[in-house]
Amino acid sequence: MTAGLQQGPGCPVPQVDLERVQLGHGSGGTMSAALLERCFLPHLANDTLAPLGDAAVFQAPAAELAFSTDTFVVHPLEFPGGDIGCLAVHGTVNDLAMMGATPKYLSVGFVLEEGLEMALLERIVASLARAARECGVPIATGDTKVVERGRGDGLYLNTAGIGAMTPGFAPRATLARAGDTIIVSGPLGRHGMAIMAAREGLRFEAEIESDTAPLHALVAALHDAVGQAIHVMRDPTRGGVASALNEIAAAAGVGMVLEERAFPIPEPVEAACEMLGLDPLYVANEGVLVALIAADAAGQALEVMRAHPAGAEAVAIGRVVDDHPGLVVLETRIGGRRVVDMLPGDQLPRIC
Amino acid sequence: MRYLSEYRDPGVAEALIRRIRNRSSRPWVMMEVCGGQTHTIVKQGINALLEGAVEMIHGPGCPVCVTPLEQIDKALALAAMPGVIFTSFGDMLRVPGSTCDLQAVRARGGQVQVVYSPLDAVDLARQHPDTEVVFFAVGFETTAPANAMAVWRAKELGVGNFSVLVSHVTVPPAITAILDAPDNRVEAFLAAGHVCTVMGWTEYEPIAARYRVPIVVTGFEPVDILEGIHLAVCQLEEGRHEVENQYARSVRREGTVPARDLVARVFQLVDRNWRGIGLIPRSGLGLREEFADFDAEIRFHVGDITVDEPKECRAGEVLRGQLKPVDCPAFAGQCTPEHPLGAPMVSTEGACAAYYHYDRHRSAHLTGRS
Q1: How big is the A-B interface in CB pairs under 8 Å?
Q2: pTM of the predicted model, to two decimals?
Q3: CATH number belonging to domain B1-309
Q4: pLDDT of residue A351
Q5: Which of A35-44, A273-282, B2-11, B17-26 has the lowest average pLDDT?
Q6: pLDDT the model gives residue B104
Q7: Could you tell me the domains of chain A?
Q8: Shortest CA distance to B224 belongs to which of B252, B186, B250?
Q9: Which of A252, B246, B322, B352 could connect to B228 by a Cys-Cys bridge, CB 3.0–4.6 Å?
């Protein structure tokens, strides 16, 4: 069925195809309104969004606010463990949470490619809305544009978020101190390898699922327990744990020593990385945080994290040191030592 | 993980390190030929753990590193041609040619695709019958069988829009070239397990006998490499010079005969330039006459591209084991993974990049950060 004229006894009636996105859906006219009514609002409706004005209006949730934005271009749009919709919510919620902020409002911008299946779009919108509800963060404002077929990758998403800062709690890279314990909240490398496996059609014995998940509740529990002993938090997305720790080491002028034996790398991730010649330390995560915690509070921090569903497999992987400032050094399984460096670009699969 | 974790066992590794240290009466100079082994040695810090007992020199066995500049330039020319999809293993994408790399060609609109198998490139050609699909067939004897199979299958299926840019090299002539060099220091070799899985080790027996040099066929995990080093040290201490097989779970003396046969049917020995080393006679594989239709150099007339290598890059000395990467004046200054002067700084298996990424804590003055 395509847009066209329906021949009948009366006037020709414009017939709108609801199976695929068309340029008209971004026109601002009746097709845009219909898309909003049928596809977006049933899932996203909330009190802040309801007036559908040019901007959302709300009371400032705190004296000090955090504001973050992130754009999502993941392919495929749906992957084992999640999709671009929930990922876009988790990504921005987590960016706010890593700053110590409590996420309060999200915006979402859709760039749709002409020809995108409407059913797929609706699944993604529903997933995004579900993720926002589960996080307790309303979508306060949004926008949709449509680009010509061939000028997008199906769907791009942008989310921005506003969070409320808690007085006296502002973890940041420059607070890293020698003696801090480096903790990761869960298994590493799942998101990146799930995407790569889905994208390249690679099959492994056990399917790898993305770890995409919100972390703000875990951060809140951690803050309740150990407060300002949390010196630094990061969600190691692109570039993985290795890049996140290198950035912290460079910013704070401290060294780090990691223990390879302690890394929580799930076996399917390790196998997939082995096969492709990739290092799981550089693979993206979307539901894991790395925290630098003052040594005397590290035990309690681990206990609290493990009691929380988002941190059940939390482990300490290393410590901050005075030596070799700016460098992250790894103690290998067999007792050697090497530098864990930043990569200049993406990891590339090896020849042999 | 089975077949992996037991070869990374810390207790076994520590015991082997002790045995190597106890057995060495003096520091022996040993070369691992394969880039995969270089990667493990530097990544696991094995070189430091053996300091004083064994000096490891990193050989020319990284296929990315030894692919000559002129072949990279041919690849860049092919990838920039309209109507061509240029396919390659991932790690060739960042190797600098004389002007740029394949990633830059892609950014300018060239169609460059990473494939995991050359057979995927044949499938791509069948899916796009109106487009020419070229595969960059690089590597040692390890990748040769799959590449030979791709050409074989393309011929069998009549896939006329598939071709290969061949830059294959073979290990034994490189070992001989190193041993023939007047300033050679290498006293024993770890031969590459994957290469020998295909080819077996009969080619190495005359080399071991003629040059009186131990050669140990070795795997790639830390315990494999330490076992290989231990076997070689024992031979050196006892004055033996044999070919031994550490990697028995994968390698047989005659190799994998069907794979060898396929390689022999599609390829023939040719003279080949090695980046940083120069021409080694009969050290490469080229397509046989009956497969010339699949030769991208002939089909697209890029065979006459020649080029000189940059003078500042001393990759040749590094690849021959005469210069440690950290002793090169350009290391970590003029030459970094972001701006590599030569191929060993590009590939993660290249000796220079391996030192840059993994070993800088031992040479803090080079870090630029501390």
Answers
A1: 117
A2: 0.83
A3: 3.40.50.11740
A4: 58
A5: B2-11
A6: 93
A7: 15-165 (3.30.1330.10), 173-340 (3.90.650.10)
A8: B250
A9: B246
